[in-house]
Amino acid sequence: MSENQKHFETTVIHKGYDAKEMLGSLATPLFQTSTYTFDTAEQGERRFAGEEEGYIYSRLGNPTVKVLEERIAALESGERGLAFASGMAAVSAILIALTKANDHIICSSGLYGCTFGLLMMMKDKYNITHDFSAMETKEEVRKLIKPETACIYVETPINPTMKLIDLQMVAEVAHEYDIPVVVDNTFSSPYIQRPIELGCDVVIHSATKYIGGHGDLVAGLAVGKKDFLDSVAMTTQKDIGGIISPFDAWLLIRGLKTLPIRLDRHSDNAEKIFEKLRRHSKVKNIYYPNDETHPDFSIRKKQMKRGGGIISFEIDGTKEDAQQLLNNLSFLKIAVSLGDAETLIEHPATMTHAVVPEKSREEMGITDQLIRLSVGLEAWEDIWNDLEQALNKLS
Ligand SMILES: *Cc1c(COP(=O)(O)O)cnc(C)c1O
């Protein structure tokens, strides 16, 4: 029976692991080893020459990591997956593999802060330039394409304003010019959105977030065509070396099993909290792509299964009021990161997006009153009670 014919909820638990190969162990064993012994010197020679299959050294491959890589590849409908020490290790390995000096990158108008930092560094050191685009129409993307454009890099939903980009539309334009499209799918996870099925080429995750789901590790993943990821494995992954530890891969295999259940609950809770927040007099603007009043609702219907667990909102007040709201909370946690069982709340202008210059921040819609909420798995009534009492305490 082909594994591909199974449902997502089954693949997330079984793909890439055969208990018969591991003494019947139900749980994937943790191969906490740096290296592998050869029976003979000649066997070592054959392994290095690629004439014999087998493990050599854990930067080049590890059986626990391999299960995770096969699983994420199947979940994202890609051919091969690679695991990294962090989301940024994945982002940098992919972007460095795709570019050379003097190339050009087209990016969505909002980017994760450290991805923005990496692009700045690539520009300073290698003259790899970039342009930002809202990517609302094909024309808008087309007019930025140059002979040296090496890739289009997209985040959707955009952090923290939750604007959406039509991935199928972007992939169609890019492929007219043979340019690969890379998507950071961290905010949705493959349960909600699968960019490769929409025509995109490479998917990246900060597995620290929804894929891990328990706030206990930092890791990254990339999925794409076998040829391309084989080359990444042998170059920017092997030689720069940002590989995942076997233990973190083991935790991710464990976390992944409940991804569909968690994402449904995150989305259910977020829908409830959204309805409550939008009716509160202290909330001025609210951004959650699941609602018909959201400008990109039609894109959400087209490419996302659910709205996901992230809501951003502006309070009617000052920066100090926004900070006071966080301080007024009783059990909800003030923290960056997202996608954990615990509800996390943060102030983008002074935390995740503090490095972005004020003018760019304003253009991106990140005001001093904006708050980002990663709705957790607690009872939504308790989440709302805490938020409501904190909002009500604002003068
Ligand atoms: C957190 C995050 C990253 C970076 O991932 P790390 O695991 O922290 O290195 C990249 N993109 C997005 C959208 C993120 O939220």
Secondary-structure blueprint of this entry?
Elements: H1 8-14, H2 41-48, H3 63-75, E1 80-84, H4 87-98, E2 104-108, H5 113-126, E3 129-133, H6 138-142, E4 149-155, H7 167-176, E5 181-184, H8 189-192, E6 202-206, E7 220-224, H9 226-237, H10 246-256, H11 259-278, E8 283-287, H12 297-303, E9 310-315, H13 319-328, E10 333-334, E11 344-346, H14 358-363, E12 370-374, H15 380-392
Parallel strand pairs: 2-3, 2-4, 4-5, 5-6, 10-11
Antiparallel strand pairs: 1-7, 6-7, 8-9, 9-12, 11-12
Helix pairs in contact: 1-3, 3-10, 4-9, 11-15, 13-15
The structure holds pyridoxal-5'-phosphate.
The site of pyridoxal-5'-phosphate (PLP) has 15 residues, from helix 4.
Task: Indicate the CATH architecture of the largest domain.
Answer: 3-Layer(aba) Sandwich
Q: Give the number of helices.
A: 15
* Strand-residue proportion: 5-15%
- Low-confidence stretches are none
Strand runs, count: 12
- What is the count of structural domains? 2
Let me know the largest β-sheet: 7 strands, mixed
The best one-word shape is globular
Q: And the CATH topology of the largest domain?
A: Aspartate Aminotransferase, domain 2
Structural Rg = 22 Å
Oligomer: single chain
Strand order of the largest sheet: 1-7-6-5-4-2-3
What level of helicity do the residues show?
25-40%
The top-level CATH class of the largest domain is: Alpha Beta
Overall average pLDDT: 96
EC number: 4.4.1.11, 4.4.1.2
Pfam families: Cys_Met_Meta_PP
Protein name: L-methionine gamma-lyase
Modified residues (N6-(pyridoxal phosphate)lysine): 209
